[in-house]
Amino acid sequence: MIRKSAVLALLTVALAGIVVAQDKGDSHKGIPHLDHVFIIMMENHGYQQIINNPNAPYLNGLIASKKVNLATNYFAVGHPSLTNYLEIVGGSNFGVRSDNNPDWHNGTCSPNLATGTVNADNYGGNPPSNITVQGGPVCPIAGVGTDADTPAVDNWNEVNPPLFNYLADIDGLKSVPASKTIEGKTIADQLVHAGLSWKSYQEDLPLSGADGVNWTSENGTVSNLTNFTNLAPITSASVVQTYAAKHNPFAYFKNVQDGTLWNDSLNNVVGFDGPRGLYTDLGSGNVPSFAFIAPSQCHDDHGRGNGDAFCAYDGTTDGTQTGLNPGLIQQGDVTIQKLVETIKSSPVWHEGRAAIVIVWDENDYSGVATAPIGLFPAQNQNSVVLTVEPNYESAGVQSSTYYNSFSLLRSIEAGFGLPCLNHTCDKSVAVMSDLFGGH
To answer: Quick check: 390 and 436 in contact, CB under 8 A?
Structure first.
């Protein structure tokens, strides 16, 4: 017979072990345990285009009043948009350096990780001899293999897009070599494996969901799946495309498309409205551990060529505020305010530890192409704004530590007690302990 005192002793040791494990997780590299993280993704503007911009008074007011922590030396890793979205949620570009749509449910194609090819749109540049370029839709990401390297200076991929007068061709401050051990998964898979939850909230996604949808109009009224026969004279060419699959990185992964797990599938991708949407979840407090929030292309500073005054593209982009569309910037700032204040009015904001991250994906090649590389100011080398607002301590930190998209993912992983994934394991990747705090 086991004596009661022995049982109590064993329980005491076990509980002590649990406490130690929890303490270790809470203090992992200075990142506190996090219950909820909200990422608000904005688009295509560099640090100096947003900071002190009079048409972004809300965000700049948060910074000036020290309600958020600000990274003053944060960089996107590469170009274009989709690449950065993949890197923020998966720690890799997975061999994708394009904005191409998913190759939905294609079970016969080989993922770029397996083939070693790079999905990219070559706009007239000459890729290095060791790079095989593949265009077209992106084969569902899966398996383990080699991703695409990211040079500090991109002189072949998207070197001549038609929308911009100035090109810097600067992917980031540093190059990122390809890795041969990339896993085709994201933080979503990590969260589910750990018993946690995630959702990708995509504005203007139709209530029917994301499956097969590459773009929609406002409110998800029409999409690439729409038969326009009964809408004549309206055609798809006249639609202002607001939702874009390239801003919904989880949809590119095979297991999400296939719905291998019910809680790690396209069921996790919802709109802002509707019974399972962002505002309903915030109102009820039924919010996942990780909320990835992507406003529409009229609300995220991206803009559209056929948009109205508050959605039209910038006139020119030379890395400064000159030539920007003030209406587009203001629309984005109002959207940030609406999202942040709605999150902070949710019951979940007052329960446990939560953080709101606002980040721009890239600077959209903004810079002066004729200047030698050494003369580029840091702001033109893909430097973008990132802020963190925690609910568990006062803010106001301005960090000059070099961080990038991998740092952001690694910090969130640490907060959830998850292991590093793909390039977040690189020795050069710093964790944002000063921005997420909790000391």
So the answer is: yes
Instruction: Give yes or no for a cis peptide into 80 (omega within 30° of 0).
Output: yes
Q: In the prediction, which pLDDT does 123 show?
A: 62
**pLDDT tens digit sequence for 267-286:** 999 999 999 999 999 999 99
The count of domains in the chain is 1
**Which CATH number belongs to the domain containing residue 231 in this structure?**
3.40.720.10
The phi and psi torsions of 243 (rounded to 5 degrees) equal -80, 140
Asked whether residue 293 is domain-assigned, the answer is yes
Q: Is 307 within a domain?
A: yes
The whole-angstrom distance between residue 158's C-alpha and the CA centroid of its chain comes to 20
Residue 369 CA neighbour count, 13 Å, CB half: 13
Which residue range(s) make up the domain with 224? 37-436
pLDDT for position 22? 33
In this structure, what token pair is assigned to residue 421?
């994934």
Q: Is residue 18 part of a domain?
A: no
3-state SS of 319-383 is CCCCCCCHHHHHHHHHHHHHHHHHHHCCHHHHCCCEEEEEEECCCCCCCCCCCCHHHCCHHHCCE
